[in-house]
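#help-structures

NK: newbie question. if I give both the sequence and a SMILES, will the prediction place the ligand too? trying with zinc ion
OV: yes, paste both and it writes out the complex. here, I ran yours:
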Amino acid sequence: MSTPVDDGSEEAAAEAADLSPAEAFALLGNETRIEILRALQTAVAERPDDEPVPFSDIYDRVDVDDSAHFNYHLKQLRDHFVRKEGDGYRFRTPGWKVVRSVFAGTFTGLSDAGPFEAPGTCYHCDGPLAARYVEERLSIECEDCGRSHVDYPFPPGGLDDRTPDEFLDAFHHHVRHHYCLAADGVCPECMGRVETTVDPDTEVPDWDVAVVHTCRRCDNRLTSTLGLNLLDTTPVLTFHADRGVDLTTRPFWRNDWCVSDRRTTLLSTEPVRARLALPCDGDVLRVTVDETFSVLETSVDEGVAGPE
Ligand SMILES: [Zn+2]
Ligand SMILES: [Zn+2]
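OV: that's the protein plus ligand as structure tokens.
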């Protein structure tokens, strides 16, 4: 094996420019390049510090005998996926995203898993809840009446190194952040612009009304209860915090208003107006939203709530 020589010319590496999906796939459609990204990822994970990974460390991890061949492919990755820094290399953000998604499942060795007992009880019949992980989606269902409480994609890396309680907690944060991001107008998949509507003709069984987020960039579409999208809003957080409930840590599926529309009233369809009545500790927070899911009004009624 010849001694690897780094060609050194960082000038060639422009700042990561916009890359179309076709260009990205073309650049990555080569086994050596994928191996280089994988080698960099492993090297980064094994390093005790945050220093760039030396060229020789990456080279030694890739099964290629010819350093010119190696250099050529490393150079192809440099504009968009990796960055040279001193004598070493780091990921650019797109490169990091690629390895994370391409190799997400291969480290865990986990495929389908469950059922596991999930915290909380069924909003409908008070039965026990069970979580299942099937084809990279996590679902939580009532074991007695079968009602679905949530069914959402979850990358297999989320199960890695976590007990069932811990990954259900991670799943809670994952879903909550995705819907709150979408409600703020940002697509959780591609960061593109999201349009949000309140749909009074939803096809979701048992629901009168749903929130639909549609990404204009990648067509990602998220449909959910109104409540799930309110988890991160100040009036809802404060109302609960004042009554000793921390919505950031309480699994969202334990709030019936996040997984069913039983606390939602469709006030009118032209224009669309809907109201949620969220009970906590004997009091009720009412939140009225319009057709774009903007909050129009909130009010608190004390001492009027029935059982939660
Ligand atoms: Zn049930
Ligand atoms: Zn998108």
